[in-house]
Amino acid sequence: MTWRRSRYLLLGEERYRDRAGRTVRMAYSARDASMFALDEGTAARLAGGGADALASLDAETLAGLAARHAVVDTAEDELAAVLTGYREGSDAAGARKITVMPTSYCNMACDYCGQEHFKAPVDNARVERVIRRVEGVIADPETEEVVVTWFGGEPLLALRVIREMTARFTAAAGRHGTRYYARLVTNGSLLTRRTLRELHDELCVRALEVTIDGPEAVHDRRRLKRNGRGAFHRTVAALAEAVREGTVPGMRVGIRMNVDEQNEDTVPDLLVDLACLGLASPQVEIHPMPVHSWGNDVSAVELEARRYAQREAEWLRLARSLGLGIPTMPGAVKRTTCAATSRRREILDPSGRVFACSEHPLVPGAEAGGVVATVDDLTGAAPRPAGQFDDWYEQVGDGAQQCGRCPLLPVCGGSCPKLWREGHVPCPSVKYNWAERLDAAALGMGYRPVGAA
Ligand code: SF4
Ligand code: SF4
C-alpha cells in the first residue's frame, strides 16, 4: 500500500515544545475530528504531502497516522468516502430527530430575527396530530432513539403543551423500548429554578441552548421582551444557580451569542461576566455565532467572515483563560449536514405542517414554499418527503459546490445549503481561524511556543 496525506488533514505552522521537550506541530484530522501533536520530522514530511516523503516514515508511525486518517491509501477516493458517510448518516433509520414548535409566538422581538411571530390559541386537535406523528416514529421497530428539539417562537410560552406531549412521548418510548430525550432552544427569559428542574427531572431535556447577546445592558437592549423588560439577570442567575447547586446534572447548557457590528466589542465583557457569575463549568459551553440572514436583510450589521473569525480567536483565548467551556476544533464528525439534508429529520409547526429546513417556518417569503407535507400525510414512521436541499450531497459530489474541495467537509458538511443557494457563503468561522484554534489548543495542553522564554 502507498500512502498520501489526507486532503482532510490540517497542519499548524507554529512549533511548540511538548512536555517531553520534543518539538511538535499541531494537527487536526477532520475525518476523525481529532486533534494531535506531531513531531517536527513527521509534520515536515506530511507538509510535503507526496508519497515519496511519506515512504521514509517507519511502519509504526504510518500505522498511527493511518489510524487517524491523517494519511490514506493513494487508491482511496476520499471525497466519495466522506459523502458515502453523509448519505448513510442521513438515511439511518435508527436515529430520528424531530423539531417540534409548540407555539408560533415569542415574547421577544429581536431586530435580527427573521421569524414573524403571532399569537394563536392552542388547538387541541392539532396538538393531537403532532403527538400521533411522533408516537408513530417512536413505535417503529427500526427506531432506536428519538430526539425531540423544542423550538419556536419561544417554546417555554407553551410549557403546558410540552408537558402534555412529553407525557405521551415518554409513555410511547417506554412501551416500545425506544430511547427518548429532548433538547430545548430558548431565549431564556422564562427560565426559573423550578422550570429548569422540571425540564430536567420530568421533561427529559438533556440539552438547553440559551441566547445571551452581551452584558446586561447590551443583552437587554438587543433582546428586549415585548413588555419592555430585560431578561439578562433572571436568565443568567437561574442558569448559574442550577449549575452551582447541581440541580440539573447531565444537562448540557449551551450559551449562544449572536454577534454583529453592534455588539462585537462587548463580547469580552460578557465572557468575564459569565465567568464571574459562575458559568465557568464543564456543564456549560459557549457558542459565539455571527448574525446571518434568514432571508431578512442584516447586511447593515453583519460582520465580514474573516473579521469575525479574527475577533473570535481572541474571544476563544479569553474564554479559555477564564475557565469557560468553548470548543477549539469541532469534536465530532457530522452524520448529516442539518435537518434539511436528512429525510429522517423534520420540523413540525404548531399547525401540523412538516418542514425540512428549520429556517422556513414563520419566515415570511420562505414558509409557504418550505412545507413538504402535513403530519396527516405521513403514516407511521415514514420519512418526510424530500425538501429543497435533500440533493445536497449530489451537488457537493459533482463539484457544483466548493465544499467538495474543502478540508473541513467531514466536520462541517457544507454548513447551510439554504444560505449557499441564496448566494451567501455560510462557512463557519473555523474555516478562517483553524490555525489560531490549534494554537489555543496547544497552549491549553501546556505546550510552549518554540523560542518563548
Ligand atoms: S438548510 Fe440551513 S437553515 Fe435550513 S436546516 Fe439546514 S442549516 Fe438550517
Ligand atoms: S461550508 Fe465552507 S467550511 Fe463548510 S465544507 Fe463548505 S466550504 Fe468548507
Give a structural overview:
The structure is a single chain. The protein is α/β, with parallel strands linked by helices and 453 residues long. It folds into 2 domains: 3-75 and 431-449, no CATH class; 89-321, TIM Barrel (Alpha-Beta Barrel). It is 36% helix and 17% strand. It is built from 16 helices and 16 strands. The strands form 3 sheets. Strands 12-11-10-9-8-7-13-14-15 form a 9-stranded mixed sheet. Strands 2, 3, 4, 5 and 16 form a 5-stranded antiparallel sheet that branches. Helix 5 (124-139) runs parallel beside helix 6 (159-176). The longest helix has 18 residues, at 159-176. The protein is globular. The model has no long low-confidence stretch (mean pLDDT 93). The structure holds iron/sulfur cluster (SF4) (2 copies). Residues 402-403, 406, 408-409, 412, 414-415, 426-428, 431 line the site of one iron/sulfur cluster (SF4).
Keyword list:
single chain, 453 residues, alpha/beta, TIM Barrel, 2 domains, 9-stranded mixed β-sheet, 5-stranded antiparallel β-sheet, 16 helices, 16 strands, 36% helix, binds iron/sulfur cluster
Main sheet characteristics: 9 strands, mixed
Beta-strand content bin: 15-25%
Secondary structure: number of strands: 16
- Proportion of residues in helical segments: 25-40%
| CATH architecture classification name of the largest domain | Alpha-Beta Barrel
Q: Structural class of the helices, strands and pairings?
A: alpha/beta
Low-pLDDT stretches: none
* CATH fold-level label of the largest domain: TIM Barrel
Total domain units = 2
Q: Give the class-level CATH name of the largest domain.
A: Alpha Beta
- Put simply, the count of helices is 16
Which strand order does the major sheet show?
12-11-10-9-8-7-13-14-15
CATH superfamily of the largest domain: Aldolase class I
Sum up the overall morphology in one term: globular
